[in-house]
Each structure stands twice: as structure tokens, then as C-alpha cells.
Amino acid sequence: MSKTSPFKVFSGTNSRYLAEKICNSLGCQLGNMNITHFADGEFAVSFEESIRGAHVFLVQSTFPNSDNLMELLLMIDAAKRASAKSIVAVIPYFGWARQDRKDKPRVSIGAKLVADLLSVAGIDRLITMDLHADQIQGFFDIPVDHLYASGIFLPYIQSLNLKNLVIATPDVGGSKRASTYSKYLGVPLVLCNKTRERANEVATMQIIGDVKDKNVILIDDMVDTAGTITKAADVMKEAGAVSVRAIASHCVMSGPASERVQSSMLEEIVFTDSIPYSNRSAKVKQLTIADMFAETVRRVMNNESISDQYII
Length: 312
Known about the structure:
This protein is of the alpha/beta class. It contains 8 helices and 14 strands.
């Protein structure tokens, strides 16, 4: 009677492009699922094949709008009610992660709320990448496999063969991430100290370190309106940098971001494909994370360690 439980991969609507790449890497078919939309904006999810006793991997980033999160929650609930053996949420971009604490009175902690929603819906494991704050892993009482895009970005940086390279961070909050890159590459670290008057609007920025006659690479976890990253690039060019590039895990790129990047002093900005990007800019490049996630899925299914996937 004993038989190894099968695994199946399904995708939400807006992450299908990535799920198909993951399935190609795994050598499996993407599962058949139907999402029905009603006139009032409500939608329903149904699996169009049996998943009884199967390990189910649900690929869906929770980027804006909130329909992506709701779709994932319905997928989880449907899988649980269809007697899946286990449910693994594969969320390359974990939204609401900037709301990870109370930074002023009477505000929500959105990241904890989303963690609770996913847990109550019924996931058994989370696979995600480059959380805005590492402590968000502690919001879950289930295993969290937290991957890092450095495994994709570091080989790309090395392929550029840049002389007089400097790693920089557009704000002090990202100094830990940038520091790991600079130590691995054996190059100096430069910080930017910024002040904001309000959300998504940078007031002032100062450079801490020397960028004169250097090739600078800015490291960040996400780019939303691109105000900070483009301001940092412009300030560094004014300070004598030879070139400025940026690398960020998540391509949120909302509002005027594409126009800002295009008109900035950035040579290029490199993202992963954790979020789809349609408003194209000639300076934007995306590297796929499909193979990294596919390998993690394979190791989870085979009960193997994923730690040697990490470069830093």
C-alpha cells in the first residue's frame, strides 16, 4: 500500500509566467486550475484535477493589487479541502513586508497579518526570497525556506569585470545586505544616509564613503517608485563615480518608477523575475530565479538540505 506521494505545482494568475519556468526546470507539467471571476469582482478557485494525497506547491507572489494575495488564500483553502497531503506556498515576493513593526502609534503590522492569514488558510511550509526584514520568518510557526537572490546576482556582478568596484546601499537600513556583498567580493562599502518628508519621497541624501573614480553597484531588496535608488545614483555621479548600476531583488516599479530610471544616471538596474514587469525601460534587466526555486522544491520533496544553495 505504501507509495511515494506525488507533488504538483499550481500557479495563481499573475505568477503563471514564473511557475511555467519552474515546471520546465523540474521537468513536470503545471497543474490545471480554474479561476472564475464574477461581475462584482469576486472570484472562485477550483483545481481541475485530483490532488488527494499530493504535495501541492502553490506559486504566487503577493504583489499589488491585493487580489493576488486573496487568490493565493483561496488556492490554499481549496487545496486543504481537496485533501492535499501538504500545502507549500511558494511566494517569491512577500508583500506587505515593509509593515514589519509599529514605527508610530496606531498602525497595523501588515506582515504579521499576512503571515497569520496564510497560516490559518492552511499552508504547511513557506518558500520565499529576500524578505524586506529577516525577522518576518519568526511571524510563522511553520518551516520557512528563505532564499537569497545573491546566488543569481553575484555571478552576474562578477561577469561584468568592473575595475575599482564599490558596493553601495541607497539607505542605512540595507547596510547589512550590502555588507555581505562587499565582503564576498572583497571591495569597499559605501553608505547613503537619506531623510524622508513622507513615504515614497526622499528629502535629502548624503554619501558616507568615497566613490570618486569608482564603478558603483547599489544593492537593495526592492524598488517601488525608484525615488531613492535614482537619487542615490545621481548623487554618486555628482561625487565623481565613473558608473552607477543598481541591483534589487523585487521589481515593484510602481507609478513613475520606469520614467525615473530611464532619465536617471543609472547605467542599468537588474532585478529578478519575482514580479512581472510590463512597463518596460531600456535600462531594466531581469534575471530568472526559476532554477533556484525549482531546485528548492526538489530538495524539499527529497528531504534534502537547501543550505548549500546559499553563496552568502
